Structure formats: structure tokens, C-alpha cells
Amino acid sequence: MSANSMQLLKDLRACFSNVELVDQPLDAYIVPYNDQHQSEYLADCDKRITFISGFSGSSATVIVTKDAALLWTDGRYFLQAERELDESWTLMKDGLPGVPRPDEWLKKNLKSGSRVGVDPFLISKKLYEKFTKSVKTNGSTLVPVAQKHLVDVVWKNQPPRPTNPVIPLGLEFAGTSWQDKASLIRSKLKDNNCTALIVTALDEIAWFFNLRGSDIEFNPVFFSFAIIGLESVSLLIDSKQVSDDVKSHLGLNGPGGEVKVFPYNSETLKEQITSLKGKGKVWLSEKASFGLHSLLVADDTFTDESPIQIAKAVKNATEIEGMKNAHLRDAVALCEYLRWLEVAVPGGSIDEISAAAHLDHLRSKQKDFVSLSFSTISSSGPNGAVIHYRPTEATNRKVTTEEMYLVDSGAQFKDGTTDVTRTVHLGTPSQFQRECYTRVLKGHISLALAVFPNQTKGHQLDVIARQSLWNVGLDYLHGTGHGVGSYLNVHEGPQSISPKAVEAAAIEAGMILSDEPGYYEDGEFGIRIENLVLVVPASTKHNFKSKGFLTFEALTLVPMQQKLIDVSLLTATELEWLNHYHAMCRDKVGQELEKQGKQGVLEWLKRETSVMTKA
Length: 615
Hints:
Elements: H1 5-15, E1 28-32, H2 48-53, E2 61-65, E3 69-73, H3 78-84, E4 90-93, H4 102-109, E5 115-118, H5 125-136, E6 141-144, H6 150-154, E7 167-168, H7 171-174, H8 178-191, E8 194-199, H9 202-209, E9 211-212, E10 224-229, E11 233-237, H10 244-250, E12 259-262, H11 266-274, E13 281-283, H12 290-293, E14 301-302, H13 307-313, H14 317-344, H15 352-364, E15 369-372, E16 377-380, E17 404-409, E18 411-413, E19 416-417, E20 420-425, H16 431-448, E21 452-453, H17 458-470, E22 481-483, E23 492-497, E24 512-515, E25 518-521, E26 525-528, E27 531-537, E28 549-554, H18 572-595, H19 599-608
Parallel strand pairs: 1-5, 3-4, 5-6, 8-13, 11-12, 13-14
Antiparallel strand pairs: 1-2, 2-3, 7-9, 8-10, 10-11, 15-18, 16-17, 17-20, 18-19, 21-28, 22-23, 24-27, 25-26, 27-28
Helix pairs in contact: 4-5, 14-15, 14-18, 16-17, 18-19
């Protein structure tokens, strides 16, 4: 929790009437979990909600009024928020029956004529308009507070913004040059009668230029904006990050280059965007900030999703091959780790933190390793029920033979990004634990086997993974799948598999998603099984209306723990899938283990992938 949440809230509320910060006094202030790029994961300098509340999850909205402080988060973080928030805060469990959304709460609880402030550069146009509409119904007003973020005013030791080195990504990893990507995006501009695309999402900029950075931990991105015109490209970036290699990569050394570099600051950004006025229609996604949209003429702005999103999500042949290779090496590290757990845990000296550190070390020894793709979730017993748990000195538990252990982890390799979850019991699981694990596995297999038509959206598939749990009255409070980048963010859109993914993009061949159903028994244990899967064309007997059909191909190749599987609950088709999957793990990962000389791990893998049959 925050060191002095009550005092920080008092200081923040004092800003509501500070004439140097606001034109007229505020009655409430909204703090979204965002930076000016609408990033999911933030640099330390942008973690304003963590600073003001103590909550460290990656999804939240805060509303502070003169007499209340409320924090909304989703089901992944309910237990975590309960641990981290103090008595100054009210936790709003978003998505549960009877819990209003933030805009609904404002509409119901504000007095008529209230003024609600928000930083317009930290909230998307779409969400700003949603809040505006809600508060307007009771006579209140949403007010852009652009001079300075009010949390920054009270944040005395706010960390500086990172400017870490940026490196070019070679064609052997990217597969397509940035010049060819520019041609693709320009064709999209012409198709939609636009003259320029403003790019604000950091992973889109990294993908477009074939550049990678490390300004946000675990995310190989760098702080920047880009404007792609029909004949030129502007990149706003800190000059310290433009090395000679970057200059050469972008063609900045010679005369007549199409890339122009400008400083990364708000004044330059505003100048660049304002200069586009009157020169044709500008493409700026409605997911970009309201503040940036306010600099343009609405009638001359095209607000569809950025064309880079889909282009980035649909991997090319080089990226797909790289992802497969990265997952093989990743599987070596994870198999080595799971074997180590079996030997080390009975000794009684392994805890969540030391276990995670050992896994991180094993991954770091693999070829082309760059970093983790997120902080390893190493959770024993009841901590496993905290869906996005991170072990700390205060919460650290022993990993024992008496409790279940869940490990969700991944890495950034130069040729791909991994994200895998396995749940094990290093002693004797109860029958209830085996049933829950097997039902999660049945859901995982059902989604893995799904065949569906082109243009299917993720919310249409989500139920497939939940059905076995639903049959006995169980469920889980998170989505079933997210998109994954190629040596980019471990969470990427626009595709996802979730009940909430109604507006997500249709699933296409070449996309990569996770398949990760789970079950969490509060105070006891957590179960999640996660593979990354590649969307591929399906071979079907028929082809209704020439739609074309799709299915999934597993990228993750790590065995499921057999002692947790109640084979009697599996259908013949599910058992066949499991044995086929384990055979792939044994054959493909086995070859890599032999190549790396890890004979002991190979013997463990053969044992863990032995054929399972019904008694």
C-alpha cells in the first residue's frame, strides 16, 4: 500500500481549488491507468495510480472526490487490490453484478453542476466522450486539466522518463523492411483518402521502424511518436536514443532521406500535429488521447483503428518461424525448471522468490535471450488464487509438497516472445484439485481443437474454454486469450478471446493468441494452463459460402503434469489430443535438449510425456 495514502489524497484534493492548476474548482478527478500512448504497461514515472493508492496492478481507474477515493479493477486483481489498498480507498470490483462502471458511478453520485477533471492526454477520445455523456445527464461537466497532471503535482520524487538505448532489428528477425511497411501503410492511407497517419502506440512505432528499446520494463519499446505521410515520415524521439546504428537504419546519414527526426516533447508534438491542419484528412485512432484529437479538426479526422495494429498482429513467415524457434528454446528452460522443482522442493528451502529467480536464470542462458516478457508469477498455495500475483518479501511463501504451485512466465528473445503457464503439485493432490485441473485442461483442449469461420471474433470462442467448468458451477474472472507480439509486447491487440471482446478485431490466420483458462479457489490454490497458439487455415470437408475456416496450432511445447489429470473425465478426443500434444513436446523439444546436451532433462521429458490411457 502507499506509504501515506491519506496524506497524498489530502494533497491531491488541495489541487482541486488551486487557481494555478485549474480555472475553476473541481469536485472530482479521474486518474486512468495510462500514459500518453495509452500503454497497458507503464514506466515507473507514469505509475500514478500506484503512487497515489499503492495498487500495483496493470489495469485500474481511480476517481477521487472531496470525500471519497475509489479504485476500479478487473477480476485478475481483486485479491491483489484487497491486499494493497488501505482504508482510505473503496475497491470497486469491475464487472461484478451491482458494481457500477466509473462513468455510471459519477452520474449517480455527483451533485448537479459538478466539475470533473481529467488529463486529456491520458485518456482516449472514446473514453473521454463516454465520461462526458454520462456526467452531462445530471448537469455536470467533464473538464480537461491539461496544464499539469494533478498527481504529478503531489509526486515529489517522481522518477525521470527513461531514454534507454534503441537498436535496429535485422531482417532475419523482422522479415519485412520498414520501407516496405511504409509502402503498405501508405496504400491504406490512400484507400481511406487520408494524407497522414499519427502513430501514438509505442509497440506500433517499434514494429513499423524495426527498432526495439527498453523504456518500459519487459516491453521492447521506446518513448516516441510518429507521423507517416504519403511522402515523408516524422519520428519524435529523444536525441540520445538516435545512435549511429539507428541513423544508418533509418537512412538519416545521407541527403534526401524520408525520415525526419524531432525531439520527443509535448510542444513539438503539438506543432507537428497542428501543421497537418488543412492538408487533407488525418488518420488518428479513437484510442489515441482526447488531447491529441482536440488539436485536429474533427471533420478532417479519420478515427478507425490504426492500420498498423492488424499489420503487426498478422505475423509474416519470418516472424512465425522465429516464434516457433523461440518457443523451443523457452520450452528447454521451462522443462529444466520443472524437473529442478521436483528435486529441490522436497528439501524445504525453495520459496516463490528463489524459484522465480532460478527460472529467470535458466531462460537467460538460452540463445538470443533479451529479457523477461513480464515479471514471473511464481505462486504457491493460496497465492495462486491471486491471478496476477507477484511475490514480494511480504507475501513470499515456501514452495512445498503440500500445496499446488502455479508459474506463469515468459521471455523476450530476438526472434520471438513467449508466455506460458503451468500448474503442478509436487506432492499428492486432492481429488477436488485434480477435478478442477482436469476441467481447466478440458477447456484448454476444447479451444485448441476449435474450428471456426473467418471473421470470427474472440467473444464467440470464449465460451468454449469455460463449458467444462460451467457444467459443475465453476468459472474464472479473466479473459481466455490475448494477442502476443513478435519480440514485442506480451499483450497486444486488436485480437483477444474474452466475453468483453465484442469490439475486438476478427481473428485472422497468422495471428498469435494465448489459450489460458483457469480456476481459482480463494485462499487455497490457483490453476491456469496457458499455451500460445498460432491461427492457421483449417482443412474442412466443406467450405460454406467459401468463407474459409481457421483453427489453432500450438507454439508452446511444455507437458501437462500427469498426476493432476483425472483421465476418467476426458473424452476419447481430448485424450487423443493430449497424447498427440505430448508426443510433439517429446519429439521437438527432445531434439533441442539433445542438441544442448541436457540428457537428464530429456529423460524427465520422456517420462512426463508418456502415453496416457483410461484404466
